[in-house]
Structures are given as C-alpha cells and as structure tokens.
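Recap quiz, item 2
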Amino acid sequence: MLSVIARRLSLSLATLLALAVFIFAATEIMPGDALDVILSSDEIASIPPERLAQMKRDLGLDRPALERLGSFLLNAVQGDFGRTLISKTPVADIIAYPMRNSLALALLVIAIAFPLAILVGIIGACWHRTPTDHVLATATIVGYSIPEFVIGTLLVLGFAVALPWFSATITVDTRAPVLELLKVSALPVATIVIGSVAYLSRILRVGMIEALSADNIERLRMTGVPPWRVVFRHALPSAVIPCLTAMALYAAALVSGLVVVELVFSIPGLGQELVRGVVRREVHVVQAIALACAVIVVTLNLAADLAVLALDPRARSQ
Amino acid sequence: MNSHPRLLLRKPLALIGIGLVLAHLIAALTAPLWIPYDPTALVGAALEPPNEEFLFGTDELGRDFLSRVFMGGRVAILVAFSAGVIAAVGGALIGLSAAYHGGAIDDLVCRLVELKLAIPSILFVSLFVTGFGQSLGVLIAVIAIIKMMGAIRTVRAAGLQLMNLGYVRAAQLRGESASSVIVRELLPNVIDLLLVEFALRSSSALLLVSALSFLGLGLSPPTPDWGLMIHAGLAAIHSEPWLILIPAVCISTLVIGVNFATEGIADAWGLDAARGGAHG
Amino acid sequence: MPGVLMPHAGVLMDNSGHPNGVVIEPADRMAAHSQGSAAAPLLQVRDLTIGYRDAVGQLQIAVDAIDFDLQAGHALGIVGESGSGKSTLARALLGHYRGAGQRIRGEVRIRGDLLNERDPESLRRLRGIDVAFVPQNPLSSLTPHLKVGAQLVEILQTRARLTAAQARTRALELMAQTQLPEPERLFERYPHQLSGGQRQRMVIACALACQPGLLVLDEPTTALDKSTEVQVLGLIRQLRDSMGLGLILVTHDLNVVAQMCDDVLVMQAGHCVEQGRTASVFKKPATPYARTLVDSVLHLGVTRASPHEARLETPLLEVRSLGYRYSSGGWLPWRRVSGTAALQGIDLTLFPGEVVGVIGESGSGKTTLGSVLAGLLNPTEGRLRFKGQSLAGEIQRRSQNQRCSIQMIFQDPLSSLNPRQRVGTAIARPAQVFFGRSKQQAWTQAQMLLEELGLNAEYLQRFPRQLSGGQQQRVAIARALAAEPELIICDEFTSALDATVQSQVIERLISIQKRRDLALLVITHDLGVVWRMAQRVIVLKDGLIHEQGRTDEVFARPRSDYTQLLLASATSASRALQSPTTTDSTTPTFLP
C-alpha cells in the first residue's frame, strides 16, 4: 500500500515538473523576446547594439535556454516568479491575493457542486427511463451546453437587473478578507455550480447505471436486500470510483470556467490578472498563473487517486 | 453497430436538436443574402431599442443589431467546424496508432494527453496567443489541439477493443503493415464513433471560441461575433438587456441543438456519448 | 451415497436444528399450505411465457409456455445453449426480469402460493427466505469493496433479523457448512483475495443464509476449473441432502446434469424441447435436438480419427522449451522478466498432415500457445522451427512463405470477419497479399473456396452479419485456405457455435484436412472435439504439459491425475447412466 502511494506521489511530482517545463517552453518558442514587449520596433532600431546587448544581459536573455529553465524552476519553487517587464513589480506580489481569492471560490464551488452532482446522478440512474430521468437528462444537456459566461450574464439579468436581489458586479477589494468576498459571490458561484453539476452528474449517472446493472446488484436484489441499502452501500462506491478520476480531470475545466466567470462579475481573481497579462504580453505573469493552475490540477488529481485507494481494496495491492 | 434510422424518429430531443442545428446553419449560410444593413456600418443612433427601422435595435456604436446577430455566428461556426474536423481526424489517426502499436508509443501518447488535459483551455490558449498572436489560423490550430485530446482518448479506447478481434489479428497475421491495418480494418469500424466525436468536439470548440471572444482572446472587433457582443453588452446590461439576451440565446440554442442531436444519435447507434461531454 | 437416479421421498423435510440454538425468524416465510403433505410440489410452473419489447417496439419471446413441477429434495436440470432462455427462466422463478423483460402469461407457485401479481415489496420479502439464487460468476457477484464476511452478515441482519453478534456467529457456521477453510480468517477478506472456488462457496452460503426451501443455480460451476467444479458440485449435493432443498440447476453442461439432477428439461430458443427423467432422456432422447446434445456428451468416441501412419519426414513444426511470460510493468527492461509465466518448457513436434489436439481449461495457456505459434506473441524463451528452418516469434520477422503456410481460425466467428467488408473481400485478401494475384483472380479463387465449404457464389457479396454462426466460421476457414497453408491453428473454433452446427463444421474441416493433407493444431477445452479429430493429444495445465501421446492411448489409460480428472468429468454422464452408484468414482473407466 505504501509503495502504491509513493508511486502515485512521484508520478504527480513528475507531472508537475513536466508541466512546468512545458509552460516555460511554450513561452520560449514564441517569436520575439521580452525586449520586443517593452520596446517598440522603432526604439529597438535606434538603440546601439552594445546597449541592446547590455539590456538583454540585465534581463538574463543571453543565457542558454537550459540554464534559464533551471533558474526558472528553482525560483518558482522558492516562490520567486520574476518581475513584470514594464513596472518591475515582483510577480508573486501581483498574483498572491488574486490567487487566494480564486482558490477560495474554487473550493466553495467544489464543496457545493460535487455532492449535488452525485445526488443528481443517483436520481437520474435510479429513476432511469422514467419521466424524471428524461427531464433531468434534458436539463443537464442544456446546463453544460450553455456557455458559462452566458449563464453568468443571464443570472445577472435575472437576479440583479430584473429582480435586484444581488449586485451585478463584485466590488470587494482584492485584499479584503476572503469571507467578505464569498458572501457577495452567490451569483458567480451559482453560475459555475450549474455548469459543473450538469457535466459531472452525467458522468456519475452513466457510472451508476452501469453499477446498478452489475452482477452483484442483481444477486443482492434476488436475495431481497432492501433497495436503498443496495444503492448506497453496494452500487454507489463502485460507481463513484471511476468517476473520481473523471472529476479530477474536470478540475482543469473548472479553472477555465472560473477565469471566465471572474470577468463577467469583475471578481478580483486570477482571471483578471491573466487577461491583463496576456494583453500586455507580460510573460512572467502568464507563466506564474499557469504554474499555479498546474499545481491546483495536479493536487486535485492526486487527491482523487488517493480517494480511489481509500475506497477500492483492489487498488491497494497493485 | 446497429443503425436504426427509425429509432431516431422516436426521440423528440434528437429531432429538436437537428432542427435547431439546421436552422442555424441555414441562417449563417444565407445571412449575407438578406440582411438589411452592412454589419460593420454605422447606420443609426447608438443603443436604440428595437423599432420598425432596426428590428433588433442598434448596438453601442450605432450598427444594426439584427444584421450583426445573423452574421455573428459565421466566423465562430467556421472556426469550430474546422477545429472539429482537425480534432476528429487527428484524434482518430493518433488514437488508432496508439491502440495499434501499444507498448511504449501508447504510453507516450497517454502521458502527453494526460499532461495536456491538466492545462485549462483558457490558459493554453493564453500561452499561445501571447506569443503567436490572435489570427484565425492560430485560433483554429490551438483549439484543434485542445479538442483533439478527448478524441484521442475515445478513439484509442475503441481501437483497443478492436485489436482483440479476430479480423484484426488475421490482418496482422498476413503481415500487413501498420498503416494498412489501421486504414483498412480499424478506421471503417470507428466511423460512427468518429462522427459523434466530431459533433461533440465541434460544439465544445464553439463554446471555447465564444468564451475566448468574450475574454478578448479570440476573435477581434469589428468582426460580428456573439461572444464579442455579449462582452460589449455587459456594460449596458441594466438599460439595454437585449444586447446580451439575443446573442446569448443564439449561442445557447446552437450548442444545445448540437448536443441534443448528438445525444440522440449516439443513443440510437448504441454508442456512449455521455463520457465525452463538453469539456475535453 | 444416494445416486442420481434414486427417487427421493417427496416429503417436505424439516430443516435440521441448529446446534447453537440460533433460530431463523420465520415471519417472512410463506405459509406452508400443505404441511406434511407428500404430494404438493415445492415449485409449480404453468405456461410461463416471458418476453420483452425490443428497441423498435416489437415483442420478442424469450421463454415460451414452460410447464414443470419440482418436489422438495429433488433436482431439476434446465439445459440449453446460450440464447435458449434458460437464464431468463431461472430468474423468473424469483420474480426477477432482466432489462425490459416481463411475464406475458403463466404462473409460478412456490409451496402453493402465487408468485406473480405481487407488489415489489412482498416479492422482495420472499426472496432469500423461500427461494434463493446462486449466479454464475462469483467474482462479479460479490461486492468488491466490502469484506466477504460483512456481506454475509448483512443478509442475515436484514433478512433473518438477527442481531450483529448472532449474525456473525451464524455467518461463521454457514461458512463452515460450505466447507470454507479457516472461516474466521476468510471472514475479513475481500472477494478478490479469495480463490474462485472459495468465492462460489461464499455465494452459496449467502444464498442458504435464511434456509430457503428452493435453490435456483445458474451455471454455478461454469466459471470454475474442473477440480474445483467437482468439489462444489459435491458440496451442493451434500447440502441438498442435509437440508432437503429443492434444486433448479441451469446449465449447458450435460455432464453436470447427469451427476446432479433427477429430471431434466431441454430448452431451445425459448421452447421446451424435451423433458423427463434424466435417465430416460439420456438413454432415449425423443427429439433430434436433444439427441444431438446427448450424443456430444455420451458417445465420446463414436467415430474416431484414423491413427496417423508414422511418416518419416522432416517435422513440419518443432517447438523446443517454449516459454512465455507476461511483462508486468511497462517497457522498462528490468521490469519485463518478472511477470507471470503463461507457458513454460513446451516441447512439441507436428508432422505434415497430422492433427494434434491441445486440451486445456481457461488459464492453461492454450490460447497463448496458439498466439505464439501463429506469430502474434513473441516467446520469451525457446526456439521454433518450421520445415527445418528457424521460425521467428514475431510475424514481422517471418518470411512471406512462413506467414502464408501457418494460418489461424478463431473462436468467435462473427468477430473474425470485418463487419464492413463483404465476404468475398475477406476471402480474396490473402491471395492478393501473399501471391500478388489480381482482384479478379482472387475473387474467382474465393468463389471456389466457398463452394468447397458448401456455400454458393451469392455469399461472396454478403456482409458477415447476414450469415449464421456456422456460415461465418466456414467463411473464416475459406479465408485461411486462401493462403494455401500447410498448418492451420484452430483456437476453440467450435466453442461459440450451436451444438447442431458444431458437428457439421467439424466434419467439413476434417474432409478438407484429408483432401489437402493439412496439418491441424486443434486447441480446445472440449474432449469430444479432440477425440473426433486428433491423432495425438497434449494436455496443458498452468502453462505446463501434463501429458501427451496418441489420443486413443491417453484417453484409455491417462497417466496424469489431471487428465484423469478431465476425462472423469467429461464421461460422468455415461458412467452415471451405466452405474448409478458410482457418480464420484475415482478410477474412471473409459467407455468406447
């Protein structure tokens, strides 16, 4: 068992490393370098070559790629993501609070969406082929078909404009306490929860239907064991186990969705910083945010793997 | 694999879906023929509510909203369609190759796919747009790569099942080359799966393109695009809600239509579409 | 030991008392209407018809007008091939229907009480109490993430209303009763940690937990290997005698029926084709279908393969010290050698024109052997020689000549043909690939081959799904012949075919083999096929050869214990009919 955990852990670290290398490489293979960002092409033409070379050395652009990769990784582990190109502010300072805010929102969404998705999935599976299931199936297709930013804007239209129950944008300061942010985030959280539940419940429903038609469930039914016991004690764990990995993979999509929704509601999170970074071609900011997301996704995947180990005795002896 | 066209007729959802998709395609294809105004021309006062002259009113710059809305799907549909085709075809070839060769090649493909799936789509696009710019070509290429991952997984899984079957083994025993086995034996037997994958990836690509446009990372003004329109309309949400509602309904009905249709078709053909989903 | 054919007294036998004084709560048990009445049957089935609506809404009948009675303490065997409806019938005896199935008409009575027309709750209450079910596959029938002891206790707590402590005691008793070793230790194990036989005993213990009067078993030993099968069948017989159970045993294996059942009911395509006392049906089957089934089991050795005259030629195929290990971890070289061995130290020689049978159960390595010889798997040890020349393991490294000389026929005829290709394309392909013939020539040859296999030219244009199983297999044989081979490896080529079709395909293959002087390697678990076709036989178990030699000698005087066991199982029907009191004799005599 311990060897299995150790193997999963090392696999996660390897994945994280590979992702970090990829993130670095992606920004490296792009045409041009940091100087092209800061200076316009006219300016570059007018500056004497030795000064240009000096500026490159200051920015560390003259070192070989592998060396830069090495220092990128080393610095990242210590929390140093470099400085912005324009204003020379440490990137870590820029993204610290927005990252905290986004993480808080993400955790709140997961805490609400996962149990809800399981519930909806169970209902759909147990009432399979009945009108209830058809309605739920249709509703979930609609739920994951409508883009998240559309759901967000529709919710704003409905519950902030037509019925002024909530505010259309979040006006909480970036560095304000997390709880204050969460208190006014009902609409953004609802937006992502709707999309997540629609998508995840379908996976669970399929898994549950498969689990319910398995041989052990049939035998239990023919032994007269009470139906709810059969569903929750025997079928549900079998159904959830393969879904856990799918759910962990969904984490990446969750982060994407979060970015979009943050922009709809002007939430001071990673989304805003990301778009700002892309628009201004702030490579270090984009790299840092990408790394942060990679860490979140890899952690969630590891958590799912460990949960599978806890639930499935067969996995422990691999 | 049974195809029961009759089965489809018994599924109202699938028929609604097909109807929606056809309506959108016809509207998008024929729009230039009958829209009243040039979608990029300033023809009236800004932010006019719907009236006789401008059936959908005007947008924040004074352009006819009706014309913009009906032209708004064209580029996005084109991008999504192209990305979907590339994703499906590429996914099929890579997925089947991985299934055929097994071993190290299969491992490598699986690891790469897992790695890629760990990166949120928006981020992935951001990384590339930062460097390569926002041209249509770059957009199609990046979205195609993102959506290909899901297709690779699904086709690979189907391919692995096929590899155990007698006729594939018989072909291998004839010493037929890898490409011969993949093209003659495997590919024809995943065609229906591939069609479903294409539909799913296209609808997913459409969602991505709209989201990217909304964020400012996708299509750029003055191209009429529903995502861009919603972004612009956010500022005026209190006073001119139709500027958001109409494009929102357009995107939603198109994607819902594709997904209803795909779900119905996959069901009728006995394929499992639920795992593919919108994301991935 | 009461034999199969001795009638039991049809008295409702009381359940024996429990030494520890734990009493099963009879509250849910159906009232015994005829206490002590000798005549009332335990189970009565009248005109039972079950059907379902398919995807386009048409009614399909799975079980058609079945009638039978079962007395307490008796056993009825329901025999049929896959698709006969026997499993549907078995489940209907508990009021359970798979998928969209439903009872169309007819009735089922247990101890006189009607099973049908009950609401789900009252139906649930009698399951496990009055009638219990033992399914086929014990691994998938037990919940994988719960300990086996906990699963048994759950049944005792929810159905017999025992307290936790009482349930645990009773559970351990039941496990001892079903001959499980060290019940205390096994109690804490998970299903995947038990052997197949232990799991099935566990499932039987779960079924008997509340002491039902009627036990329905669906292929209870099909998933077990032969030695375990013998033990489990013995256990079932013992439990039946000690508890006075009525047994319904659903199986495709007539040998099991002969050992276990007083009466038999033969089903085909949902209909009851024949029913009666086991002895009568076996000795004098009234219908052709029953006769075919009985013949394949009883008359092992009606017509024999002619012994092969020793031809002093170079062997066609030589196998020396062949071994194959599964690689356990990826492609890292030091991980690969540590896998489980599927084959070890295999030596065999095949001469031109000879038919050799390879007998083994699932897991014996027989399929691996076929795959290695064909070139689909690369052996990890050993050498292969074909016609005196070295034969590479992988198909890619074999010469063109070697590739076309060794052909293969697979078990499932439908999946051995590409569903998107016409029959003609499939048969023509080898000629085009191996001999460079044009499409025209190849199709002409394909037509001739089809005719040789008894199918006329119009089949060339058909798709595989338009053919029956037997026809598909004949197409597969034609395709193999198109390569003009010298050796054909037949991997369980009759196992997926109906009994009536099996002998036809076997006869055709034999005549083709004689006409073309082909060598055949017939891999199968079915001794009848080997007896019919093979001049020599090899017995494989756990990747090792247990015995090999001339077929008639091995069958008459088997030297290894395992071969004796296999022969005993396969001939138990004949022996049961000859001498009712020696159903489990340890020294089988082979009857010609």
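DSSP finds 22 helices and 20 strands in chain C.
The first strand of chain C starts at residue 43 and ends at 53.
End of item.
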